[in-house]
TrEMBL record:
Its cofactor is FAD. PROSITE patterns: FAD_PCMH. GO terms for molecular function: FAD binding; oxidoreductase activity. This is FAD-linked oxidase. Belongs to the FAD-binding oxidoreductase/transferase type 4 family. Coiled coil: none annotated. It comes from the Bacteria. Keywords: FAD, Flavoprotein, Oxidoreductase. It holds the Pfam family FAD-oxidase_C. Residues 36-215 form the FAD-binding PCMH-type domain.
């Protein structure tokens, strides 16, 4: 090990796994953005809180920056190590530590894959309800770092609603035990909530106590074809008034075309500009009849052009694939992504303004968008036209993002709904946060990480 700093780290922690092979540096040094060339110093894979503390203390002494790493499924560059940082991968800290049947909590290590969390909860007759398409590869620590939302926010809320307690190694090496699973705790500042969504800039989560809940009642899944954009909110209002919604997701014909080319099966004949996948409680005949009545009213009003209701679990999964397979189907094209949100009441006006902006600014690029109408979150994917150089494409997209940020500010929205700020969106933070807020955020960072070693360059543009 030629670097004396790494030699000292190995001397202190002889059992610590340290990776320095070029292929490993590339693999662990990037996330799904693929826009930056990975260049980490090394990769470390601790297995205990004590090792994480020792690594952080070493990093402070050596002034080595640390990039915490989970499943690296992020889309904002939050897990990129491009400037000689030490990547601290938590993938070996992936166990269930405790289950409390009375409190209905599951305590896990941060490297546990979300799908494995779901399975562990089901084995105990309960569910962890936060869910999204990347469940098979994202980690619970990364979900906490970005306050991930997903497809069932309309029913269950974001990650932060389901975190009962955290153990965190702060940037100064201190081990913090936050909230300890309490339901009521009015004893001052809630640092647990401060850590959620902080993108690894304040501390490294080494243990999470998750709230679990009862499995949802039997449900049905319906795919709807809509004639225009205005129908999205009309159908949402109709279904929300008549049904208990678990999810309400939309996508465009462009998105459908890519998913079908990726292997999904068409469920509705013909071409339609907009589609909705919705899931709702259907535990009894009354709820099932309510769904059919809502569908028929939507057809009568001209808000729904066609639809199909799943008749089996397999068909429900096939309908969901049309929505959940979008990101994977677009991945080979390396799209430029925006992840934005506005209040639900502001969605109609924002959608019209956004659509006009995208059509004007991207006359040659294909724009694929989809999202969570029920919580005001939209995902915009811009595909690079053939013949346009990568750097020119990125420059064009960043110009449009500036315009989009101004539009969001006018509608009181956010440039990041659920993917964090990272490297991609740090230049636009001021469109979402006031100067006073950003100054306070910097002050908080200084307290928890006085030497600025945790994920520098993320969140703040001039970090």
């Amino acid at each position: 090990m030629s670097d004396p700093r790494l030699a000292e780290l190995s001397r202190r922690l002889p059992e610590l796994r340290v990776l320095t092979a070029p292929a490993e540096l590339e693999h662990y040094g990037r996330d799904w953005t693929r826009r930056w060339t990975p260049a980490p110093l090394a990769i470390v894979l601790p297995t205990s809180a004590e090792e994480v503390q020792a690594i952080v203390r070493w990093a402070n002494e050596q002034r080595v920056a640390i990039v915490p790493s989970g499943g690296r499924t992020g889309l904002s560059g939050g897990a990129v190590a491009a400037n000689g940082e030490l990547v601290l991968s938590l993938e070996r800290m992936n166990r269930v530590l405790d289950f409390d049947a009375v409190d209905r909590t599951l305590t896990v290590q941060p490297g546990m894959i979300l799908q494995h969390v779901h399975e562990a909860a089901r084995e105990r007759g309960l569910v962890y309800p936060v869910d999204f398409a990347a469940r098979g590869s994202c980690s619970i620590g990364g979900n906490i770092a970005t306050n991930a939302g997903g497809i069932r926010v309309i029913r269950y809320g974001n990650t932060r609603e389901w975190i009962a307690g955290l153990k965190v190694v702060a940037g100064n090496g201190e081990l913090l035990d936050l909230n300890r699973g309490l339901i009521k705790n009015s004893s001052g500042y809630d640092f647990r909530q401060l850590m959620i969504g902080s993108e690894g800039t304040l501390g490294i989560v080494i243990e999470a106590t998750l709230k679990l809940t009862e499995p949802p009642p039997p449900s049905q899944v319906m795919l709807l074809a809509l004639p225009d954009m205005d129908a999205l909110m009309q159908v949402f209002a109709l279904f929300r008034a008549r049904l208990v919604l678990q999810a309400f997701e939309f996508f465009t014909d462009h998105a459908l075309r890519h998913v079908l080319a990726h292997g999904a099966q068409r469920a509705i004949d013909g071409d339609h500009p907009y589609y909705v996948v919705t899931e709702f409680d259907a535990a009894d005949e009354h709820q099932q009849e309510a769904a059919l009545t809502a569908f028929e009213q939507g057809m009568t009003e001209g808000w729904i052009s066609d639809g199909v209701i799943a008749q089996s679990e397999a068909q429900a999964a096939a309908l969901w694939r049309l929505r959940e397979g979008i990101t994977e189907s677009l991945a080979p094209r390396r799209p430029y992504k925006n992840d934005v949100s506005v209040r639900i009441s502001a969605v109609p006006a924002f959608l019209h303004e956004m659509q006009a902006l995208l059509a004007r600014e991207y006359p040659q690029a294909e724009v694929v968008w989809f999202g969570h109408i029920g919580d005001g979150n939209l995902h915009i994917n811009v595909l690079r036209p053939d013949g346009l150089a990568e750097d020119a494409f990125i420059a064009q997209c960043e110009h449009v993002t500036k315009l989009l940020a101004v539009t969001l500010q006018r509608h009181g929205g956010s440039i990041s709904a659920e993917h964090g700020i990272g490297l991609v969106k740090r230049a636009y933070l001021e469109s979402t946060r006031s100067a006073a807020e950003i100054a306070l955020m910097r002050g908080v960072r200084q307290v928890f990480d006085p030497n600025g070693i945790l994920n520098p360059g993320k969140l703040f543009a001039d970090d």
